[in-house]
Amino acid sequence: MGASGAGKSLFLRAIADLDPNDGEALVDGTARSKMPAFEWRRRVALVPAESGWWADNVVEHFVPGLADTTMLEALGVPADALGWAVSRLSSGERHRLAIIRALSRKPKAILLEEPSASLDAKSTTLLESVLRDELARGTAILLITHDPAQADRLARRTLMMADGRIAEGQGVAK
Amino acid sequence: MSDYIVLSYWDVMLAAVFLVLNGVLSLALNLGLERQLLIASSRMVVQLLAVGLVLKAIFAISSPWLTLLVATVMCIIAGREVWARQERRLAGKWGFGIGAGAMAAAGMIVTLVALTTQIQPDPWWSPRFALPLFGMILGNAMTGISLGVDTLTTTLYRERLAIEARLLLGSSRWEAITPFTRRALRSGFTPIINSMAVVGVVSLPGMMTGQILSGVDPTEAVKYQLLVMFLIGGATGLGVLSAVLANIWRLTDDRHRLRLDRLASRS
Questions:
Q1: Does residue A139 form part of some domain?
Q2: Residue range B105-113: average pLDDT?
Q3: What is the pLDDT of residues B145-173, one digit of tens each?
Q4: Is the pLDDT confidence value at B267 over 60?
């Protein structure tokens, strides 16, 4: 958590190695610098606040066979949304599909930037339960939120960021 | 070339009458084009008269080093032109270097091969053949490269969310940019493809028209024109391809990041 402009998004981008940075990160004990960047990003998936779409149809953004329809249901996205054109999606649908797109590749860690910013209360509840399932499966999640209640509901640990630094690591056991 | 008709400067001036008429119309209808017309046509007259004298002198001196020097100057001017036509360009020396380098390399290779194996003047570097040929190739490569690179940088800038989305899903930098590479290459190739498709049907190229007007057998003029079109097409293709790929290499890095920070900021 932290004020807008505190550097939360840049921090996630740095972990995903999307901007030049001097840090090092590990997943399953393997250092980021020991593998090609695309291998790293397959293990550590970042879903930015604004999702990017490069083709006209939703289905083209999923690896064939990896499109997980149970996940659509779990997040409250219409089951036939995979067959839609991207231009038809609402911003909430876009964002949820971007999360599904990342999760369907089974990453070891997920970095989420304000995942429920464009979602209503019901969809937020669905999303949080999907995230809890991921946690139970052993996936690490680093999530940016502006909602203290959401942090309370989900977090095992809350980090506060200010002026580009992690100001305090409040170990909230949960 | 028995029926070659020598033009007097008076004939040339008469031809300008229609252009002057345009200027008068612009004044009368308040179109505001007369200034630009005047400047552009004056530039054309001065530049062409000067180049005629320069070429005459260069042909008379006929030195390989002077020919190379002139070719280099042409490359630098064309490189600057490519640089100036970019909406967003690479910062620092890369912005000029990649365009000029790709153009010089493609143009020189193609011109050298054409001079040594096909046209074979004596000596092979004879400025009378080398410079006009190089100029035609360079001019076309310049248009293609500036279109291709401009499309690339503006598209990468506009589509950065989509490109980063692909990178984040584990694509390599080349995979992530493929559709935009294709778009840039297509726009760089379009002018030469269009001109090859309609040549002879819609347009008669200036060089061929010139040769026919100066008395060369049309079938002979066609042979020259085909040779020149092949060379232009080849050099433009090589130049566009290498300039676009070099720009992609520069706008991404070995950690598969999109490096738009290497574009110069627009003032």
A1: yes
A2: 94
A3: 999 999 999 999 999 999 999 999 999 99
A4: no
Full domain range(s) for residue A63: 8-147
Lookup: tokens for B127: 């400025």
Strands A44-47 and A109-113: parallel
**CA dihedral sign, ordered A84, B160, A62, A119:** negative
Whole-model pTM over 0.80: yes
Question: Per the structure, how many domains does chain A have?
Answer: 1
A136 domain residue, yes or no? yes
Q: Give the pair of three-digit tokens for residue B108.
A: 């020189």
Q: How many cross-chain Cβ pairs, A to B, lie less than 8 Å apart?
A: 65
- CA B263 to CA A30: how far, in whole Å? 34
Record: contact B257-A19, CB cut-off 8 A: yes
**What single letter denotes the amino acid at residue B32?**
G
CATH number, domain with residue A82: 3.40.50.300
Residue B233 neighbours by CB under 8 Å, 6+ apart:
B192, B196
Indicate the pLDDT class of residue A66, thresholds 50, 70 and 90: low
**What is the tens place of the pLDDT at every residue in B182-229?**
999 999 999 999 989 988 888 788 888 888 888 889 999 999 899 999
- Contact (CB<8Å) B161/A98: no
**Distances from the Cα of B21 to the Cα of A35, B9, B32, B34, B189, angstroms:** 70, 19, 14, 10, 37
Assess if residue A174 is contained within a domain: no
Residues in A whose CB is inside 8 Å of some CB of B read 16-20, 36-39, 41-42, 45-48, 50-54, 98, 101-102, 105
pLDDT band at B32 (very low <50, low <70, confident <90, very high): confident
Domain-embedded: residue A130:
yes
As beta bridge partners, residue A160 has A168
ipTM: 0.90
Using a 10 angstrom Cβ sphere, with 0-12 exposed, 13-18 middle and 19 or more buried, the burial of residue A27 is middle
